[in-house]
Amino acid sequence: MIYPNENNNQAFYAGSEKDILLEVDLNGKIRFDILLYTIYNQLGIIYKIVNADLEYINGNNFGNIQLQLRVNDASLDHLDIYLKKYKLVNSKIDIIQKKEAS
Predict the structure, then answer these.
(1) In angstroms, what CA-CA distances link 29 with 1, 7, 25, 93?
(2) Which of 3, 46, 71, 98 could be bridged to 76 by S-S, CB 3.0 to 4.6 A?
Protein backbone atom coordinates (compact mmCIF):
# COMPACT_ATOMS: atom_id res chain seq x y z
CA MET A 1 0.00 0.00 0.00
CA ILE A 2 1.02 3.57 -0.59
CA TYR A 3 0.39 6.03 2.23
CA PRO A 4 0.49 9.80 1.87
CA ASN A 5 3.42 11.65 3.41
CA GLU A 6 2.20 12.68 6.88
CA ASN A 7 4.62 15.61 7.04
CA ASN A 8 3.05 17.19 3.98
CA ASN A 9 -0.31 18.92 4.63
CA GLN A 10 -1.06 18.93 0.90
CA ALA A 11 -1.28 15.14 0.99
CA PHE A 12 -4.44 15.38 3.10
CA TYR A 13 -5.97 18.69 2.08
CA ALA A 14 -6.34 20.03 -1.42
CA GLY A 15 -5.22 23.63 -1.78
CA SER A 16 -8.02 26.11 -1.52
CA GLU A 17 -9.01 27.39 -4.93
CA LYS A 18 -10.25 30.85 -5.73
CA ASP A 19 -11.49 32.66 -8.80
CA ILE A 20 -9.41 35.53 -10.14
CA LEU A 21 -9.73 37.85 -13.10
CA LEU A 22 -6.49 37.99 -15.10
CA GLU A 23 -5.82 40.68 -17.69
CA VAL A 24 -2.88 40.05 -20.01
CA ASP A 25 -1.43 42.48 -22.57
CA LEU A 26 -0.07 40.51 -25.51
CA ASN A 27 3.14 41.97 -26.93
CA GLY A 28 3.66 39.82 -30.02
CA LYS A 29 6.07 37.41 -28.29
CA ILE A 30 3.49 34.64 -27.89
CA ARG A 31 0.40 33.63 -29.82
CA PHE A 32 -3.02 33.80 -28.18
CA ASP A 33 -3.84 30.14 -28.83
CA ILE A 34 -0.49 28.99 -27.40
CA LEU A 35 -1.14 31.03 -24.25
CA LEU A 36 -4.55 29.41 -23.74
CA TYR A 37 -3.17 25.94 -24.53
CA THR A 38 -0.43 26.35 -21.92
CA ILE A 39 -2.79 27.69 -19.26
CA TYR A 40 -5.22 24.79 -19.63
CA ASN A 41 -3.15 21.79 -20.70
CA GLN A 42 0.26 22.36 -19.15
CA LEU A 43 -0.61 24.35 -16.03
CA GLY A 44 -3.99 22.66 -15.48
CA ILE A 45 -5.88 25.91 -14.87
CA ILE A 46 -9.53 26.14 -15.85
CA TYR A 47 -10.39 29.43 -17.56
CA LYS A 48 -13.23 31.39 -19.15
CA ILE A 49 -12.60 34.13 -21.70
CA VAL A 50 -14.31 37.27 -20.41
CA ASN A 51 -13.07 39.70 -23.07
CA ALA A 52 -10.53 39.63 -25.89
CA ASP A 53 -9.36 42.59 -27.97
CA LEU A 54 -6.70 41.18 -30.27
CA GLU A 55 -4.98 42.10 -33.50
CA TYR A 56 -2.98 39.78 -35.71
CA ILE A 57 -0.12 41.62 -37.43
CA ASN A 58 2.60 39.82 -39.43
CA GLY A 59 2.11 36.57 -37.53
CA ASN A 60 2.11 38.20 -34.09
CA ASN A 61 -0.73 38.76 -31.61
CA PHE A 62 -1.18 42.16 -29.99
CA GLY A 63 -3.90 43.42 -27.67
CA ASN A 64 -5.29 42.36 -24.34
CA ILE A 65 -7.41 39.57 -22.97
CA GLN A 66 -9.31 39.08 -19.74
CA LEU A 67 -9.65 35.58 -18.34
CA GLN A 68 -11.51 34.26 -15.34
CA LEU A 69 -9.31 31.59 -13.75
CA ARG A 70 -9.81 29.06 -10.97
CA VAL A 71 -6.42 28.79 -9.26
CA ASN A 72 -4.74 27.66 -6.07
CA ASP A 73 -1.48 29.08 -4.70
CA ALA A 74 0.77 26.61 -6.52
CA SER A 75 -0.85 27.05 -9.93
CA LEU A 76 -0.81 30.84 -9.48
CA ASP A 77 2.95 30.72 -8.86
CA HIS A 78 3.48 28.61 -12.01
CA LEU A 79 1.34 31.03 -14.00
CA ASP A 80 3.37 34.02 -12.77
CA ILE A 81 6.61 32.33 -13.82
CA TYR A 82 5.18 31.56 -17.26
CA LEU A 83 3.94 35.12 -17.83
CA LYS A 84 7.28 36.60 -16.69
CA LYS A 85 9.12 34.30 -19.09
CA TYR A 86 7.43 36.02 -22.06
CA LYS A 87 7.43 39.47 -20.37
CA LEU A 88 3.63 39.68 -20.54
CA VAL A 89 2.23 42.58 -18.54
CA ASN A 90 -0.62 41.32 -16.40
CA SER A 91 -2.84 42.20 -13.49
CA LYS A 92 -4.89 39.95 -11.22
CA ILE A 93 -8.04 40.72 -9.24
CA ASP A 94 -9.71 38.34 -6.78
CA ILE A 95 -13.36 37.83 -7.62
CA ILE A 96 -15.66 38.29 -4.64
CA GLN A 97 -18.80 36.20 -4.79
CA LYS A 98 -21.96 38.12 -3.97
CA LYS A 99 -24.36 36.45 -1.54
CA GLU A 100 -27.98 37.13 -0.90
CA ALA A 101 -28.79 38.98 2.32
CA SER A 102 -30.89 37.00 4.74
Answers:
(1) 47, 42, 11, 24
(2) 71
Can you tell me the distance from the alpha carbon of 69 to that of 44, in angstroms, rounded to the nearest whole number? 11
CA pair distance 87, 80, nearest whole angstrom: 10
Are 83 and 67 in contact by the 8 Å Cβ rule? The answer is no
Beta strands in 1-102 (DSSP E): 18-27, 46-57, 60-71, 89-94
Q: d(Cα 63, Cα 36) in Å, to the nearest integer?
A: 15
Backbone angles phi, psi at 80, to 5 degrees: -60, -45
pLDDT digits (tens, 9 = 90+) for 15-49: 688 888 999 998 888 889 999 999 999 999 999 99
